[in-house]
Specification:
The protein is α/β, with parallel strands linked by helices. The protein has helices at about 10-15, 15-20, 50-55, 100-105, 105-120, 135-145, 175-190, 205-220, 235-245, 265-275, 310-320, 320-340, 345-355, 370-375, 395-405; strands at about 70, 80, 90, 95, 125, 155-160, 195-200, 225-230, 255, 280-285, 360-365, 425-430, 445-450. It is globular, with a radius of gyration of 23 Å. The longest helix is centred in the C-terminal third of the chain and has 20 residues, at about 320-340. It has 15 helices and 13 strands.
Length: about 475
């Protein structure tokens, strides 16, 4: 016998947004989210009887605002978080394939990079149908097939929008979403992807058509979740509302650019979506295509992305007035990174990872050594640092000003005193187990990076000699 339960408006208001998105959790008695003490997950009024059953329905307290549940991988030190408020666990650091796979680096180097990432706990690998005209997906698929890793042990994401030259091979029509994803699965040699992203919004496709197409590919087993990339907050909210209105599947995360010079969306828009509807964030380009590495000193090195064919726009940006101002700001971080025993790149990635609602930060690397360096910068320590080390207040608050406002201030005395910022928790900068230090790199295992996140979103960094 089928039982249908109608949720009143008051019921919906009383439940937290996390419950509406993820559903109730299993009770201690082994049910499917039903009353404490057992049963078969019957909802209120659908199987329980009398005051005893009603009294057993104790609401689960909501999670702390902004909290992302973290766990640490065995033997790797990698941290894992929920993708938004879904149940999918992803590594705090993911590996992207833009520019590198199928283009900048050889297939052998790509295999080395992917192997190092997987062995150090990275389980999120991102690609797109358009990267290197599909070669990135083919390269990734060939490596995964040769490695023979359990499919359940990693998360593959791809993005749909730019597929081919024909008018029907791009955009977010139902036709291209379905056919584009089938093409990606063929190149990846996989039965499904974990997440399919709509790679920017499409004004030519109705939102209902997009959401219905994404729901279809999930129901067909071609994908497990769907998300958005480069969408505005209003568009994400429209997709969510459309899904709720027609009993479809809403997006679980937004993939957005985020670094010291690109901050408004991550700081002003997405946190509200995370709290209201559970949409998380996967961020990319934490180093601004290499600008936040101190390797650009008024010119583009021969081995950087700016010298690759088709990336003249990046070279122009390096030589532009805005680019020179940004490089000057990066130079302000050099002495701070030196005192911390880390690189500017490590400092920038750690800063991105501590933004509210971020589930994972995608890295783009051209060698295994570069990946190891970045992984060594983002291994959080368990517990607080109790050795009482301190940096000069002027130096510390100067970096806070650079991190919070993205501008230079040559007079640290004009900045707020250290006491105006909240106490710091600790984040360790150490090399993952089994890896080697990159040549010329600092002693990552002896440094401490203190990170404080308060109501003013100030970030405090302190070093340990």
């Amino acid at each position: 016998m089928q039982v249908s339960i109608a949720c009143t408006e008051q019921n919906l208001r009383s439940r937290s947004s996390e419950d509406r998105l993820c559903g109730p959790r299993p009770g201690p008695g082994g049910g499917n989210g039903g009353p404490v003490g057992g049963g078969h997950g019957n909802p209120p009024g659908g199987g329980g009887s009398g005051p005893k059953a009603r009294a057993a329905l104790v609401p689960r307290p909501p999670a702390p605002a902004g909290a992302l549940r973290e766990s640490t991988g065995r033997g790797t030190g990698m941290k894992y978080r929920n993708l938004g408020k879904s149940g999918l666990r992803v590594s705090c650091l993911g590996l992207g394939t833009w520019v590198t796979f199928g283009s900048q680096i050889s297939d052998e180097t790509a295999e080395d990079v992917l192997t190092v990432a997987y062995e150090h706990g990275v389980n999120l690998f991102d690609t797109t149908e358009v990267y290197a005209a599909g070669k990135a997906e083919r390269t990734l698929g060939n490596i995964l097939k040769s490695k023979g890793w359990r499919r359940s042990s990693y998360v593959i994401t791809t993005k749909i929008f730019w597929g081919g030259q024909a008018e029907t091979e791009r955009g977010l029509s139902r036709k291209h979403i379905i056919e584009g994803l089938r093409g990606s699965l063929e190149r990846l040699q996989l039965g499904y992807v974990d997440i399919v992203f709509a790679n920017r919004s499409d004004p030519n496709s109705p939102m209902e058509e997009i959401v219905r197409a994404m729901t279809y590919v999930i129901n067909q087993g071609m994908a497990l979740y769907w998300g958005t990339s480069r969408w505005g907050a209003a568009e994400i909210m429209e997709a969510y509302s459309m899904a709720r209105q027609f009993n479809l599947i809403p997006p679980v995360c937004e993939q957005a650019e985020h670094h010291l010079f690109q901050r408004e969306k991550m700081e002003m828009q997405l946190p509200e979506l995370y709290h209201k509807i559970g949409v998380g964030s996967v961020t990319w380009s934490p180093l601004a295509c290499g600008l936040i590495t101190s390797k650009y000193d008024g010119q583009a090195p021969d081995t950087c992305r700016a010298t690759i064919k088709g990336y003249q726009w990046l070279k122009d940006k390096v030589h532009s007035e805005d680019g020179k101002k940004q490089q000057a700001k990066v130079m302000d971080l050099l002495p701070i990174a030196h005192q911390l025993g880390c690189t500017v790149a490590q400092l920038a990635i750690a800063w991105c990872l501590h933004s509210e609602g971020v589930s994972s930060v995608l890295l783009g690397v051209s060698s295994a050594e570069q990946l190891i360096e970045h992984l060594g910068a983002l291994q959080p320590a368990d517990g607080a640092d109790s050795d009482g080390d301190r940096r000069a207040p002027g130096q510390q608050t100067a970096f806070q000003e650079v991190a919070r406002r993205g501008r230079r201030d040559q007079n640290p005395e004009l900045l707020p005193p250290e006491s105006s910022f909240p106490a710091a928790a600790s984040l360790s900068l150490r090399t993952p187990p089994g890896s080697r230090q990159s040549q010329g790199g600092p002693a990552h295992n002896k440094s401490r990076l203190r990170v404080a996140i308060g109501m003013n979103k100030a970030i405090s960094y302190r070093s340990k000699a």
